[in-house]
Amino acid sequence: MKVGVSLPVREMAGDFSAIRDFAQAAEELGLTHLRIPDQVMRPGSAYLNEPMMMLAHISAITEKIELVPSVIILPARQTVHFAKQAAELDNLSAGRLRLGIGVGSSQEEYEYLGMQFSNRGKRCSEQMHLLKKLWSQHQVNFSGDYHEISGAGLNPLPIQQPIPMWIGARSIPSPAVIKRIGEISDGWFVLCSPEDIHGLREKISDTAKKIGRCPKEIGEEAGVAVVGEREKEWKTRVLRWKELGLSHLCLRTLGGGLKVSEHITKLEEVMKELPEAL
After folding, report:
1. Residues β-bridged to residue 34
2. Model pLDDT for residues 110-162, shown as the tens digit of each residue
3. Inter-residue contact 3 to 39 (CB < 8 Å)
4. 197: which strand partners?
5. What local confidence, expressed as pLDDT, does residue 7 receive?
6. CA proximity to 186, closest of 250, 247, 251, 95
7. Could you give the CA distance from residue 248 to residue 234 in angstroms, rounded to a whole number?
8. What pLDDT, on the 0 to 100 scale, is given for residue 44?
9. Would you state the pLDDT for residue 222?
10. Which residues lie closer than 8 Å to 116 by C-beta, 6 or more apart?
11. Which of 163, 187, 20 is nearest to 94 (CA)?
12. Alpha carbon of 138 to those of 132, 163, 243: distances in Å?
């Protein structure tokens, strides 16, 4: 099981030295990936960096750690432009990008960006199909409900062809989201409880098999808070997800009221105890 961490960007708002130190510390401690949230503009929105720009910065000051925006609100973004951004970031990071993809729930944010909110699910599925082509073909021919491309492509293509895309879903995904995970995605972020994952796995597996995919190709990543109300039980939760066979886990130091300087210290403490849980 690969173990990564969420970058506590909200709690480090604007402190780029602290963000740099945390990212480098995570890499030095052997964490495999770094996750960062997405938000452009919403009513009353808190301070939050644009994830692709922030990860481009982090890619330049790290060497091995995987970069994971989780999740990009894909239908709120223009597909070809985003494809170019992602390809560029994958090249800058030497192939370390893994994209989290979601549709979001803020209608206002869609309106601010000039994108339609009501068809975001269908558009997301089409975008993902198109992105796979744009990242792996020099000349793309694509005709869909929302996109038309004839004989054009990105240059340069990314190192990963295509860049892996993981789905961010609610704790009880809709049938459309389950279909998107089973048919298109490389993995999904598990927001349900360990008790509920079996039923979802079965639905995703059935969906994948219908189109000839091997369900084992679809990764799973859950999050575990190591601070706050559940701090004392984090090792038990890690072990439970390990027993369930998840491919990835994401530790979280955010949300526990830590000072900026305390996040790395907490992460160091957790990594010393992590082998006991595994």
Report:
1. 5, 67
2. 999 999 999 999 999 999 999 999 999 999 999 999 999 999 999 999 999 99
3. no
4. none
5. 97
6. 247
7. 15
8. 84
9. 97
10. 75, 110, 123
11. 163
12. 12, 15, 42
Could you tell me the CA-to-CA distances from 191 to 83, 96, 181, 222 in Å, in that order? 27, 24, 14, 7
**Lowest-confidence pick of 38-47, 131-140, 204-213:** 38-47
Residue that has been written with the tokens 């927001």 in this structure: 191
Enumerate residues 6+ apart whose C-beta is below 8 A from 231.
225, 256
CB 254 within 8 A of CB 6: yes
Q: Give me the percent of the chain exceeding a pLDDT of 70.
A: 100
Which residues have a Cβ under 8 Å from the Cβ of 8 and sit 6 or more positions away? 22, 252, 253, 254, 258, 263
The residue among 147, 220, 144 whose CA lies nearest residue 189 is: 220
- The Cα 204–Cα 175 span in angstroms is 10
Q: Would you say 79 and 147 are in contact if contact means Cβ atoms under 8 Å apart? A: yes
Residue 43 predicted with pLDDT over 90: no
Q: Which residues lie closer than 8 Å to 233 by C-beta, 6 or more apart?
A: none
Q: What does each C-alpha distance from 270 to 1, 63, 123, 143, 255 come to in angstroms? A: 16, 22, 40, 49, 16
- 45, pLDDT greater than 80: no
d(CA 258, CA 244): 30
Which tokens hold the place of 19?
């963000």
> Which residues 6+ apart lie within 8 Å of 253 measured at CB?
5, 6, 8, 226, 227, 263, 266, 267, 270
